[in-house]
Amino acid sequence: MSNNNFDIAILGGGPGGYVGAIRAAKLGLKVAVVEKYNLGGVCLNWGCIPTKSLYHIAETLESIEKASIFGIEAGKPRLDFAKAMARKDDIVEMQRRGLFFHFSKNKVELIEGQGKLISSDTISVKTKDGKDIKVSAKNIIIATGSSAANVPPFDLSQEGVMDNKGILSLKKLPKSLLIVGGGVVGSEFANIFASFGTKVTIVELLDRILTTEDEEVSKVIYKALRKKDIDIYTSTKVEESKKRSGMFELTLSGGEKLKVENILVSVGRGPNSKDIGLKDVGVATDQKGYIKVNEKMQTNIDGIYAVGDVTGGLQLAHVASEEGKIAAEVIAGKDKAMDYSVIPWAVFTSPEIGTVGLNTAQARQKGYDVCVGNFPFSNSGKAYITGETEGFINIVTDKGTGEILGAQMVGPRASDLVHEVAVAMKGEMLIDDLSTTVHSHPTLSEAVMEAAEDCFGVATHKS
Question: Among 212, 268, 382, 422, which lies 20 to 30 A Cα-Cα from 152?
Answer without folding.
Answer: 212
